[in-house]
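Illustration: DNA-damage-inducible protein F.
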Amino acid sequence: MRPVSGDVSARTIFALAFPALGVLAAEPLYLLFDTAVVGRLGALDLAGLAVGGLVLAQVTTQLTFLSYGTTARASRRHGSGDRAGAVGEGVQATWLAVAVGLVIVVLAQFVAGPVVGVLAGDSGIAASAESWLRIAIVGAPLVLVSMAGNGWMRGVQNTVRPLRFVIAGLGLSALLCPVLVHGMWGTPELGLEGSAIANVIGQSLTAVLFVVALARERVPLRPDLAVMKAQAVMGRDLVARSLAFQACFLSAAAVASRFGAASVAAHQVVLQLWNLVTLMLDSLAIAAQTLVGAALGSRHAGSARRIARRVTVWSAIFGAGLAALFAAGYTVIPRLFTSDDGVLDQMDSAWWFFVAIMPIAGIVFALDGVLLGAGDVKFLRNATLLCAITGFLPLIWLSLAFGWGLVGIWSGLTLFVVLRMVAVVWRFRSNRWSIEGAEIGGRTNGRMAT
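Result:
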């Protein structure tokens, strides 16, 4: 696609959003398949996969700045007509990914045992989780390279090729996983370790495809410490924001567990459905990020604001449509996950909060994408921390103190989303985010538009 210099149509927005949704959904879908394959080994191996996978997910989740931060920086360059500079952001993000990933691999070999021991409790589960994690963590640099690749390709408004690369890697893992785990076609039966090996092989393919795509752009591939430092500074704010989310949702899970098995089971089901909804909304946020960054890079702040309004309207409509779908299915959808009357009763307590926040979340996610595209990450960090401290966390722990159950927990999530909406709408209306120029923050050749 060409850099954005004017208004964009709904077709352009969704042409970016749908492939981005495919990338976001591919990994969770593969993890379900991986779980099903390992599940045939027995409860011990399945529990080991759950604990080891949780550790790996927590590590990689905190480093998504390699995709989102790179998109923000690359889209500005692309919008200014500097495609080589946009791709160059991908080069430096890839070097950063390799460096951070190798550090993670080394550290994991020292801390894997103690960490899974604390999480697992049972020594048998801990042993299974540790053996899986020691192999799977080798793929950390590969995963981070793929994040960086996604980032710069989104920045140049290409969300289709990342989808192909991700599907290729996950497809290879899906083919190898049952073969290596269960010893099919004459191969040795590797058990749980086979799952980790299959993951790393598939991740290798995806990472190689992204690196080859970089090399074919014919841009300088040498490291640039100044650019990497700027990316790391931006990443620091995004990591802090991500940690705020983790603190909230881990606290919610911990409190839900104090109300009994039915409560925590119901909370987990509704939370997984919420995660599915956020994936869908995040795809539109990625489109907003890409298009707004390009518009500001091309010095069209007015166009950036119009794009922001248009994506926000579409995202709110999408959120409202999802809310209507889940409201209509409130007697059917929960029963797809459980037939336990106690769990269903608890799900009913959270269900209408879950439905009510979807249209609000549509606005929040879209404007999050707008501000990310503008590089306004310090504001997003501060707003998320403030909303968590004043909204979500107090209600979660008050729920425990006063026995409010899932009603209190999901009231906290609702307040969290509402406060975030107030914050991002205020920031959007202030226009303080709409700084033009190829550099984030306008430090060199940018200026705030009036």
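Reading the tokens back as a structure: DSSP finds 14 helices and two strands in the chain.
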